[in-house]
Specification:
With about 575 residues, the chain is of the alpha+beta class. It has 18 helices and 20 strands. It is about 40% helix and about 20% strand. It has a seven-stranded antiparallel beta sheet with strand order 3-2-1-7-6-5-4. A five-stranded antiparallel beta sheet has the order 9-8-12-11-10. A four-stranded antiparallel beta sheet has the order 16-17-15-20, sandwiched between helices. The N and C termini lie far apart (about 155 Å). This is Diguanylate cyclase.
């Protein structure tokens, strides 16, 4: 009877096994798959208890699912066993194909190790194939490999089973069923992990896309509605610097519509004097203060700050430029600088500014040395620049006699070029045709009496009018400065001795004309001393020389010619 019913029993078991495999392949999540695997061992394979030990990323194994005994499930689920201890178990006992069976006669050494485990009670076996309570049976689960088969991939977990319900060690059919089940469970767990990873990746991707969309929208709103000007320009290539997009604030600042802005780059809009500043501004974190041209042709001072943004991880890079209107601040700075360098009464450059301008025209090279070098160059009919200007870097250099000169490589363009134009002075008291920097020291005659008789307001009115007449009597580019009190200085470059004398006469004639001050006409005279500035002198030496000549000129004139009032 038992023999006749065996095929029917096995067929029923196969049906249960098939159903268990179908269930674990249709579970909705990794956790459901693991629990279905454990339940299938109990319900389809006929074991009293089963645990799924899953390999973690760190290599240790965690009890991820348990079936068959609620008390044991509560005791060991979630506990972790070290990989080394598991490797010890999987290398012990008997090999039943891919299964590892550790009989109680060997497994007693594992009773106190650190792998989560349970104990079942029961009497000692009465015959050879009866299951002992300390027997252990493990079914390793390997990820499917390229060649197929249960052991072709890495270990992903171990099925631990205990005590078949018939009380006997599994026979050949039971072992094959458990081994096949572990193989299918490995596939199901791998697929569930893949689905779980894909779902997490999709969720993460969606969150990143949402964050990107939110970031793009935030950037768009920040860009469009920023209170200061912003622009996005191309970076690199033939169209480097061309404006691709500009916000409303920048369009309002420059008085240009967004469609027109796309035809320009900042180099098209910058003031000619500031183009060098723009070109020197670093693309990454560069900052500059310069002037941009409005549509009406006027210029506005702005602070321009650059940063580089990428369209994607490996996409094209763009230049994000922040443009802040600093016109009012710049106007205040220029006003402060003007007040610091100009006389508050007359508006002329003050003493400090005069010395600064004069020092800028002078160098420490003495005029005698300058003349000697020029004379030597003239004597040889050539100059260093003229002789070698056409020589390419690295080429041999020959003089007019064919002699070879082994010069070092040429420096970079403008690296050592001297832009300074040396100031020279005419020699002697005669006009020899030399044009130099004339320094006219002017002292008003009779000004103190006007102050004493009519008050300081009248004196101030005289100084203001004299400053106006002096400024009107010189060329553009000449400097008229108030040195202090009733002393003025004129810097006029490119004059010969006769030119400077004529200028002094013209200016004196302008000054001596009647001046309206406090409702009355007054007169002042003027004494001029003409000095000459040349390299090798200091500004104070030049002014002292002109001052001394002025006093010589003042003493040489009759006193009545110096009176005013």
């Amino acid at each position: 009877m038992e023999t006749e019913s065996e095929p029917y029993v096995r067929l029923a078991s196969l049906r249960q096994l098939h159903q268990a495999m179908a269930d674990m392949n249709t579970a909705r999540s990794l956790a459901d798959t693991l629990q279905t695997v454990a339940d299938g061992v109990v319900h389809a394979l006929g074991y009293e208890m089963a645990a799924v030990n899953l390999v973690r990323p760190d290599g240790d194994l965690v009890v991820a699912a348990f079936a068959g005994n609620a008390a044991a499930e509560a005791l060991i689920t979630g506990r972790v066993g070290p990989r080394a201890s598991w490797d010890r178990r999987l290398n012990m006992g008997e090999r039943w194909g891919d299964l590892i069976f550790i009989p109680h006669t060997e497994g007693w050494v594992l009773d106190d190790d650190d792998v989560p485990q349970w104990y079942t009670d029961g009497p000692a076996p009465r015959f050879e194939d009866e299951w002992h309570p300390s027997d252990r049976l493990f079914a390793p689960m390997y990820a499917p490999g390229p060649q197929g088969g249960g052991t072709s991939g890495e270990l992903i977990g171990v099925l631990s089973v205990d005590r078949p319900r018939n009380g006997r060690r599994p026979g050949a059919w039971g072992r094959e069923a458990l081994q096949m089940y572990a193989f299918q469970a490995a596939i199901a767990i791998s697929n569930a992990r893949l689905r779980s990873n894909m779902q997490r990746a999709l969720v993460r991707l969606e969150r990143e896309q949402q964050a990107l969309r939110a970031s793009e929208e935030s950037f768009r709103q920040a860009f469009e509605y920023a209170p200061s000007g912003m622009a996005i320009a191309e970076m690199g290539g033939d169209q480097h610097g061309r404006i691709l997009r500009s916000n409303d604030a920048l369009c309002r600042l420059l008085g240009r519509p967004a469609s027109a802005m796309r035809r320009y780059s900042f180099s098209d809009l910058v003031h000619a004097e500031d183009i060098g500043t723009l070109l020197r501004t670093s693309a990454e974190g560069g900052r500059a203060e310069l002037r941009l041209r409005r549509r009406d042709g006027s210029y506005v001072w702005v602070s321009l700050r650059n940063s580089v943004v990428a369209d994607a991880a490996d996409g094209p890079r763009f230049l994000l430029t922040h443009v802040e209107d600093i016109e009012e601040r710049k106007r205040r700075e220029l006003a402060l600088a003007h007040r610091a360098s100009h006389d508050s009464l007359t508006g002329l450059p003050n003493s400090a500014e005069l010395r600064s301008r004069l020092s800028a025209r002078l160098c420490t090279r003495p005029q005698a040395a300058h003349s000697a070098v020029d004379a030597m160059d003239s004597a040889y009919g050539d100059t260093p620049h003229g002789a070698y200007a056409e020589t390419a870097p690295g080429d041999p250099v020959f003089d007019s006699g064919g002699h070879y000169f082994d010069f070092p490589p040429h420096p970079a363009p403008y690296e050592t070029h001297d832009h300074h134009v040396h100031a020279v002075a005419p020699e002697g008291d005669r006009d020899d045709g030399t044009k130099g920097l004339a320094v006219l020291f002017c002292d008003l005659d009779g000004f103190k009496s006007i102050n004493d008789r009519f008050g300081h307001n009248a004196g101030d009115a005289v100084l203001i009018e004299v400053a106006r007449r002096l400024s009107g009597g010189v060329r553009d580019g000449d400097t008229v400065a108030r040195l202090g009190g009733d002393e003025f200085v004129i810097l006029a470059d490119g004059l010969g001795r006769a030119d400077a004398a004529d200028l002094a006469v013209r200016l004196r004639n302008e000054i001596v004309q009647p001046i309206r001050a406090e409702g009355r006409a007054v007169r002042v005279g003027a004494s001029f001393g003409i000095g000459w500035a040349h390299c090798g002198m200091t500004a104070d030496e030049v002014l002292k020389s002109a001052d001394e000549r002025m006093y010589i000129e003042k003493r040489s004139r009759p006193k009545q010619h110096r009176r005013a009032g």
